[in-house]
Design brief:
The strands form 4 sheets. Strands 1, 2, 3, 4, 5, 6, 7, 13, 14, 18, 19, 20 and 21 form a 13-stranded mixed beta sheet that branches. Helix 1 (about 105-115) packs antiparallel against helix 2 (about 140-155). By secondary structure, the protein is mainly β. The chain has 4 helices and 21 strands. A hairpin with a 2-residue loop joins strand 5 (about 55-60) and strand 6. The protein has 4 domains: about 5-85, Roll (Phage tail proteins - horseshoe like beta roll fold); about 90-165; about 175-195 and about 255-315, Bacteriophage T4, Gp27, baseplate hub, domain 3 (Elongation Factor Tu (Ef-tu), domain 3, Beta Barrel), CATH 2.40.30; about 200-255, no CATH class. It is globular.
Length: about 325
Amino acid sequence: MAKCQLLILSQGRIFECAVEEGVVWETYRKGSPGKLTFNVVKDDVLGFYEGDAVQFNYDGKKIFYGYVFTKKRTNNRIISVTAYDQLRYFKNKNTYVYNNKTAAQLFLTIARDFELNTGIVADTKHVIASRSEDDQELFTIMENALSETTKNTNEMYVFYDDYGLLCLRSVKELELDLLIDEASGESFEYTTSIDENTYNQIKLYRDNKETGKREIYLVKDSDNIQRWGVLQYTDKVEEKENGKVKADSLLKLYNKKTRKLHINKVFGDIRVRGGSRIGVRLYLGDLTVDNYMFVDSVKHTFYESDHRMDLKLLSGEFNA
């Protein structure tokens, strides 16, 4: 039988807490910190405060390291706790004006400025010529930098907290040898759409200061235009960007239907987190899904005798 171990580190003391069944760990592909929610049984010894560190291990494996943000009592015996990992501090707002930096360099700068611990940080390679972010959430600032990187290179990255260390990695490195099929979960919901983040024509422009003329970079997929009509993405190209390369990369990224799949009560695997890539093989009545999908979010629920996941999956590229 698996064992849940929950430790709270408070003012030099370490408490190994008795917790109720059903510890929940949630992670997201972007925009939200990792979250651990649990009910701890209060005794005469236990005493802890907001800001204290929390460690959660399951079956001897490290799952979560974060900090107490919320405590709630409904009786004298049980305390409901919400803890977040370091990405909670990416909800802070700040202003950054930077030149000739990669997204990885920006990530390390933010971590240093807000005294956050880092682990594996990939070289994102693409140099962003110039960008100004005024009073924006750190999540937004980083996601804008990663979006620019993807648009210019077609390479995708995610950042996350790995047991107290902030990591930035290529999605290729988060691909798992895990297959979800009809036997994996209790229920599913599958959606395909061209209504958001699908574009079959890319129009980029740049105002050339030397010639006084506007340069246009236009690429399109005529077959998909015939199927769906013109779905156009328009954007400005910065001075040092390669307009043709960026347009081709955007068409490759967005010229497809978006696919979303929700599956509940899947057998748990602690390697699965927001941003992971897993195999899916499901017969859906009129078609079969048989490809890799990205984990947009995952909710792990841990019991002494069982571990389940609720998954929200996206098509094999980040269209959302």
